[in-house]
Amino acid sequence: MFWIAQGKNNTETAQLLSIGSKTVKKYVENIYQKLGVQTRASAVVRALERLGLLYL
């Protein structure tokens, strides 16, 4: 979630975490489902405003 909030795409996040981009894509899809959102921006807003999960 931190890297999404920093504006990183799946490929960039995968490189930073030393995992595959498809793995990141699946993680992001799971985050969307858990937060009830459909976009990266919505996920960040939900995490910041409603759940207090991110500290930037």
Automatic annotation (TrEMBL):
<keyword id="KW-0238">DNA-binding</keyword>
<dbReference type="GO" id="GO:0003677">
    <property type="term" value="F:DNA binding"/>
</dbReference>
<keyword id="KW-0805">Transcription regulation</keyword>
<dbReference type="InterPro" id="IPR036388">
    <property type="entry name" value="WH-like_DNA-bd_sf"/>
</dbReference>
<dbReference type="InterPro" id="IPR000792">
    <property type="entry name" value="Tscrpt_reg_LuxR_C"/>
</dbReference>
<keyword id="KW-0804">Transcription</keyword>
<feature type="domain" description="HTH luxR-type">
    <location>
        <begin position="1"/>
        <end position="51"/>
    </location>
</feature>
<protein>
    <recommendedName>
        <fullName>HTH luxR-type domain-containing protein</fullName>
    </recommendedName>
</protein>
<dbReference type="InterPro" id="IPR016032">
    <property type="entry name" value="Sig_transdc_resp-reg_C-effctor"/>
</dbReference>
<dbReference type="GO" id="GO:0006355">
    <property type="term" value="P:regulation of DNA-templated transcription"/>
</dbReference>
<dbReference type="Pfam" id="PF00196">
    <property type="entry name" value="GerE"/>
</dbReference>
